């Protein structure tokens, strides 16, 4: 994330962490080069356009602990990393609720050109009231309504990128003085429930992928439906492996219902690793890291997604559905069932803080390269995941440790590539010759010029 503190809050204070350099071009250039050395598929860039201001009804904890505040725009660091690399892709988060597809399509087509086809878009619809207030709304749009809006956005987006310029519209004929054939550039007309466009799409010619690789994260029923229709890569998670396996199966099933294949979606889950050459050293490193973590920062992060100010509860007071409904009527409908279900029976503020002793709810794998590889292999076998989104702890140390210690172990087992394939990000993920979205994807229906 283009900020100081991302997932494991408080670790920016560690003396070997360089996250405070996020404003410097060199930070991103060196990160891109390091991750490409490790043969990573992509750098995933998260983002929010609001602020975590629910805990304590303000930003005291958020500002002190740099809980995704400040945060810069993720898109602008991509050309820096792309210039210094050749293969690694870039998944950029952008909130469609506060964008218009006409200019947004140009922005991502431009990034696809500048990266030679290595750009992806992580589609989010938002979850912060503060973001909505920032653009003039009283509060965020209701959960399912945001996805309805998202479906309309995507249809317009596809028309612009897939249906406007024909593949051979660019002639580039100097002798005849013709750069593009106007007969092969088509007017885009879209009259949807939320977005309207009526224009010849004259902003960008087709980029290597046309449409960026489409990422999406969402655990709700409506979010899974959206993913089944649109997403090529889905971020998900679960409290245990059987639950995660069921979620993975559901997402693949939604893709099939949308006329796609089960394997047309790559499903990823978050992964945090603290590794060293022996188990004792790994445990010591973990305890050293944890000394800098901020459970309060993690709580400020978590509650902004639920809209519940836990400072209104005593440390050992049970947080019940009845109490929440009394304090926050209608919360479930607005934030969605996945986020609203964050408080299990018997939950207290003390228990939530204890669960976040590493500055995040995400429990790390701690051990030797062999132990970490064993666990990764088991998770994939038991859940049918395709891969992982590796979260940083102390940066860049945690990346370097994974690259130097874990990846060779995975390569030896035949579980990790030993070299990049040529091609776009989509081809690296799905195979040679698949630079564009396939014909069974919803977007293909908007290629009306074929």
From TrEMBL:
Domain of life: Bacteria
InterPro entries (alphabetical): Diverse_substr_monoxygenases, Luciferase-like_dom, Luciferase-like_sf, NTA_MOA
Sequence positions that bind FMN: 47, 93, 143, 147, 220
Alphabetized GO MF terms: monooxygenase activity; oxidoreductase activity, acting on paired donors, with incorporation or reduction of molecular oxygen
Keyword annotations from UniProtKB, A to Z: Flavoprotein, FMN, Monooxygenase, Oxidoreductase
EC number of the protein: 1.14.-.-
Location of the Luciferase-like domain: 23-380
Family classification: Belongs to the NtaA/SnaA/DszA monooxygenase family.
Identification of the protein by name: NtaA/DmoA family FMN-dependent monooxygenase
Annotated organism of origin: Pseudoduganella dura
Source organism phylogeny: Bacteria, Pseudomonadati, Pseudomonadota, Betaproteobacteria, Burkholderiales
């Amino acid at each position: 994330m283009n900020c100081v503190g991302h997932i494991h809050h408080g670790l920016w204070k560690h003396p070997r962490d360089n996250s405070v350099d996020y404003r410097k071009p060199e930070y991103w250039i060196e990160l891109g080069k390091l991750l490409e050395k490790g043969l990573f598929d992509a750098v995933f860039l998260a983002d929010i356009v609001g602020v975590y201001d629910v805990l304590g009804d303000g930003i005291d904890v958020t500002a002190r602990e740099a809980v995704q505040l400040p945060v810069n725009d993720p898109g602008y660091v991509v050309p820096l990393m792309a210039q210094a690399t050749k293969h690694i892709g870039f998944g950029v988060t952008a909130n469609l609720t506060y964008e218009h597809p006409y200019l947004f399509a140009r922005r991502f087509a431009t990034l696809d050109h500048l990266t030679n086809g290595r750009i992806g878009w992580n589609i989010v619809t938002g979850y912060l009231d503060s973001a909505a207030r920032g653009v003039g709304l009283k509060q965020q749009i209701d959960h399912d309504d945001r996805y309805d809006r998202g479906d309309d956005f995507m249809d317009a987006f596809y028309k612009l990128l897939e249906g406007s310029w024909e593949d051979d519209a660019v002639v580039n004929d100097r002798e005849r003085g013709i750069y593009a054939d106007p007969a092969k550039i088509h007017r885009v007309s879209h009259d949807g429930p939320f977005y309207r466009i009526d224009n010849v799409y004259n902003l960008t010619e087709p980029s290597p992928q046309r449409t960026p690789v489409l990422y999406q994260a969402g655990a709700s029923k409506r979010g899974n439906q959206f993913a089944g229709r649109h997403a090529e890569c889905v971020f998900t998670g679960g409290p245990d492996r059987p639950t995660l396996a069921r979620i993975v199966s559901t997402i693949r099933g939604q893709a099939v219902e949308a006329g796609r294949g089960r394997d047309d979606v790559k499903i990823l889950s978050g992964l945090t690793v603290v590794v060293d050459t022996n188990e004792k050293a790994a445990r010591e490193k973990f305890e050293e890291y944890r000394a800098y973590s901020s459970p309060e920062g993690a709580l400020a992060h978590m509650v902004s997604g639920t809209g519940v100010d836990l400072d209104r509860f005593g440390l050992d007071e049970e947080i019940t559905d009845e109490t929440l409904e009394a304090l926050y009527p209608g919360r479930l409908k607005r934030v969605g069932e996945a986020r609203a279900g964050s408080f299990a029976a018997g939950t207290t503020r003390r228990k939530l803080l204890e669960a976040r002793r590493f500055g995040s709810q995400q429990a790390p794998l701690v051990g030797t390269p062999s132990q970490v590889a064993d666990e990764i292999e088991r998770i994939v076998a038991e859940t049918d995941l395709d891969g992982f989104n590796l979260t940083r702890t102390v940066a860049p140390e945690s990346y370097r440790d994974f690259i130097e210690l874990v990846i060779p172990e995975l390569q030896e087992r035949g579980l990790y590539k030993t070299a990049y394939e040529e091609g776009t990000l989509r081809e690296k993920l799905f195979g040679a010759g698949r630079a564009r979205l396939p014909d069974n994807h919803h977007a293909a229906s908007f290629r009306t010029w074929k």
